């Protein structure tokens, strides 16, 4: 009887929490659908340019690709690499095929090499020839973790800051600290600014530890400047903190904070650069533009893999700052439900 009473109490408690019931049913469906959309995308079609290659080889490459093989010089190809408009360049040097890979995207690299190997194997006079392959960004020594680790840094910084920041701000409410502050003449924007700066100090420390460990202990590939990588991760962490404090205003307990993870965090992981977005449906590519992690992870990857500077990444940084500012302003309005000034 006593066990049955406990069971009935738990069932009634869950039934009163409509958000938990909805999450229990729909969150797994959402995540599985995202996995399906990402992994069921079209095969990646590489963009290849060439100069002075034999006509039979060019014809075979043309047959293997849906896109045309663009004719351009090596210098033009390098400019296209910098604009992310090209995946590979092929020419003949010293009577040997020479392949220059853009190198930053493992999906594109494997797609290019598959096309090239198929092309050479179909030509009887080229079967035993091994092309000379070089990388414009990175090198052949970069492993899978080097390629995806830069994206994972951004994801883990965003994830842990979101969880810790959201729970910490919620405790400020449930323990009555925020209520006491709201009873004073302090302005809402002052409260939000104070909380973001206070919690932000610890998120900055956390970001520093994660980045330092990945770069200097795990020895992940690092082509850019360490301090510039820190700037991007700090901005990403502040954005995650501002989002966490905003959503925590609509949660009544820590469980409800955790419920935001499959809705807010997991979708961003799929569109942060771990998978090539060009293989996805166009509406999914548009959807990724509304996710802060898309820009933070892209900036981190550009610094670590390509060695770019903050000046080159001003668009990503500006959009990321815009997200942080938007969440900051929404935080101020969210406090209206607790006090009207």
Automatic annotation (TrEMBL):
The chain crosses the membrane at residues 21-39, 151-170, 191-218, 230-250, 257-277, 317-335. It holds the Pfam family ABC2_membrane_3. Residues 113-338 form the ABC transmembrane type-2 domain. Keywords: Cell membrane, Membrane, Transmembrane, Transmembrane helix, Transport. PROSITE patterns: ABC_TM2 (PS51012). GO terms for cellular component: plasma membrane. GO terms for molecular function: ABC-type transporter activity. It is found in: Cell membrane. It is a multi-pass membrane protein. Its main location: membrane. It comes from the Bacteria. The keyword Oxidoreductase does not apply. Belongs to the ABC-2 integral membrane protein family. This is ABC transporter permease. It comes from Aeribacillus pallidus. The lineage of its organism: Bacteria, Bacillati, Bacillota, Bacilli, Bacillales.
């Amino acid at each position: 009887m006593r066990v049955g009473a406990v069971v009935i109490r738990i069932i009634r408690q869950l039934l009163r929490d409509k958000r938990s019931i909805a999450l229990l049913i729909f969150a797994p469906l959402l995540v599985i659908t995202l996995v399906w959309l990402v992994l069921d995308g079209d095969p990646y079609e590489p963009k290849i340019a060439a100069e002075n290659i034999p006509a039979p080889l060019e014809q075979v490459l043309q047959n293997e690709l849906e896109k045309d093989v663009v004719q351009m010089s090596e210098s033009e190809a390098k400019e296209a690499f910098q604009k992310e408009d090209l995946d590979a360049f092929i020419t003949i040097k010293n009577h040997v095929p020479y392949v220059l890979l853009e190198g930053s995207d493992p999906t594109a690299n494997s797609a290019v090499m598959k096309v090239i190997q198929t092309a050479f194997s179909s030509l009887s006079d080229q079967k035993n020839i091994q092309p000379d392959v070089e990388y414009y960004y990175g090198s052949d020594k970069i492993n899978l973790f080097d390629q995806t680790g830069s994206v994972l840094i951004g994801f883990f910084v965003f994830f842990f800051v979101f969880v810790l920041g959201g729970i910490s701000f919620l405790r400020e409410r449930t323990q009555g600290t925020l209520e006491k502050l709201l009873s004073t003449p302090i302005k809402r924007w002052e409260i939000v600014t104070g909380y973001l700066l206070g919690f932000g100090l610890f998120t900055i420390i956390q970001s520093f530890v994660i980045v330092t460990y990945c770069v200097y202990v795990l020895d992940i590939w690092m082509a850019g400047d360490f301090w510039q990588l820190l700037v991007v991760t700090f901005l990403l962490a502040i954005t995650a903190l501002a989002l966490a404090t905003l959503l925590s205003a609509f949660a009544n307990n820590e469980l409800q904070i955790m419920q935001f993870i499959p809705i807010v965090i997991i979708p961003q992981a799929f569109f942060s650069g771990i998978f090539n977005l060009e293989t996805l449906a166009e509406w999914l590519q548009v959807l990724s533009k509304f996710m802060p992690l898309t820009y933070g992870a892209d900036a981190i990857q550009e610094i670590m893999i390509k060695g770019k500077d903050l000046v080159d990444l001003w668009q990503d940084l500006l959009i990321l700052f815009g997200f942080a500012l938007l969440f900051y302003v929404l935080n101020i309005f969210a406090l209206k439900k607790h006090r009207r000034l």
